[in-house]
Amino acid sequence: MASAIPIMPPPGTTAAAGEETNASSSSTNAWTKSTATAAVKTTASSTPKPVSLTNSNKTRTCRNIVIHGFCKYEGKGCEFNHDVGKPATSVPSPEISKAKLHVNSPIFKPSNLSSGSVKAESVNAPEFVPKHSQDSTSASGGAFQDNRPMVQSFVSPMQSSLMGSMSNLTGSFSQFGMGDMSMGGAMSGNYYGEGSVNNYYYQGSGAMLHQPLQYHLYNTPLPHVSNLLPHQKTIHGFFISDSQREELHKKNEMVLQTVNAQDYGLPEDLHEYHSLYPLDMTQEKSTEVFGYQSSVYKCMCSEDGKTYALRRIEGFRLTNEVAMQTIEGWRRIKHANIVSIREAFTSKAFGDHSLIFVYDYHPCSKTLYDVHFGPQAQLASQVVVGAPKTTDHVIPERTLWSYLIQLTSALKKIHSAGLAARLIDPTKILVTGKNRIRMNCCGIMDMLTFDTAPNIAHLQQDDILNLGQLLMTLACKSLTATHNISKSIDYIAQTYSQDMKNMVLFLMSQPVPMKTVDQIISMLGPRIMQEIDEVQTSNDILESDLSRELENGRLTRLMIKFGFINERPEFDMDPAWSETGDRYIIKLFRDYVFHQVDEAGLPVLDVAHVLTCLNKLDAGVDEKIVLMSRDELSCLIVSYREIKACIDSAFRDLSKSK
Fold this sequence. Notes:
Layout: H1 25-33, H2 35-38, H3 56-59, H4 63-68, H5 94-97, H6 120-123, H7 131-139, H8 157-171, H9 183-187, H10 196-201, H11 242-255, E1 269-270, E2 273-278, E3 294-301, E4 307-313, H12 326-331, E5 341-347, E6 354-360, E7 366-367, H13 368-373, H14 375-381, H15 397-416, E8 429-433, E9 436-439, H16 444-448, H17 456-476, H18 485-495, H19 498-508, H20 517-523, H21 525-565, H22 582-594, H23 607-619, E10 624-628, E11 635-639, H24 640-656
Antiparallel strand pairs: 1-2, 2-3, 3-4, 4-6, 5-6, 7-8, 8-9, 10-11
Helix pairs in contact: 15-17, 15-20, 17-19, 21-24, 22-24, 23-24
Region (Knob domain): 565-658
Region (Disordered): 1-31
Subunit structure: Homodimer. Forms a heterotrimer with a catalytic subunit PAN2 to form the poly(A)-nuclease (PAN) deadenylation complex. Interacts (via PAM-2 motif) with poly(A)-binding protein PAB1 (via PABC domain), conferring substrate specificity of the enzyme complex.
């Protein structure tokens, strides 16, 4: 709005002078073209009554300052006050006294401007004040007040239809936590929700939002430097991969998350555990699986300082103490695909009779339900408009075979111990890595149904049947796939191989006489060989990443020794200890590694040079280098072996002082 209002010329600067008008740009152009001749050729009929400028104009604030914030005629003849809040003096301007035309010259009025084109209220229109400025001024008790009536903004039919379509579009994303992003909300000026910025950057005592860590400390190699010679190496070759480092950072961050226990109604201490942190953010406490509401928390153990996961069964009263002994059998099971249980106990710390199970904690893990049936999975599996139907996001067959092999291996361990899993459900199987799954909540059903004395053989057959139902659900990617088995089998036959279909039919068939896990393993023979090969390949990659960090550990120890020795203020009553003898050589070597400069005197930030020198120093090679003092008056020729001996000797001197 303000940019469309021209800056009005002050009186006395041109041949046309007088009161300021809010004329249009075309009128202004007409005024500028006829400035020189209008004052000469004015007639009595077109000349208005002259207006004499008095000292009262000195106290009036210039309209250009109010509208535009500046006046280009300031100091060039403008009579009005340009210092906001400071009354102007009545000292006449020297420019005005030297002007050719007097201040009482007649006011110029363009000939092409009709008398009815500019209204009086337009000339005397109030100053434009933004809404946020008006609010802040009124809140602070300012003198500026806007008494203008509310003006309704014009919305064209096209804009109104666009607003409706945008509101319908954003409404479909409301289930993913996205608020109203319609055009109306944007036009109102409230680009951020009320308190949204403060809630993110200034967390409340009970807010679970947290600042994101800077995971990407190193960028990936650029394309033009990726294809290097065998003897060349980039900086990324000295560290683990970006994805692996980011995943480890996220897990470490999740382990350290805490909340205020009072804000969530959690106890400060529970048995020997403290710092409870809720893990089920959805707060959907379903009774479908256990028959009781359950919740999961992360906690710290006061005895060993480790992090564990607590599964709480709410409102359960344990009537038989012997039921606690069922956990002993599960505690002896140690398997890579089973979440180990530590202990179980009862508690009233939550205000009711609760049964608590303690399991190993796997940070940043998700359930199979969240990975393949959650909101994000459903959004990713939606078919794009106009795309062929073959783009449905089905689970790869290799992934299904990997899931089946891992669950079969876990069942083999459980059944061999004379137990039954009894919980092969998508919501109770954790995904702790890439296609790495673990059976969770083992042993809970044994304690909840202890009084019924179930038959273990029948429960083991139910495990095999539940495994088949889970496989069918994942293959069809539908939680209702088991409601119509024949149709689901047809879909599996069309989408996957014949081996997958035969496996599902075997798991879902009636036991004649009894099905065992060994039969499943025999059918998985060729697939198990492929799984072993992929596991060993993944292990080789992890060992390679570990070897890189092993080298970094050696360099870190060298840097620690440098920090202990260099620039030490005083040792053994000798203030010059770090500047004499072998320590002086170490100081010069520090400058050689870290404080080099180029021919222009600029610092050289070459990480490859630092790593090369430190690796040679740690190995103690016989290669010799030239060390120069800071005043460039002396040079020393020493080898890495001699420098290493100096460091070891100085560090031993510091160690003997203990």
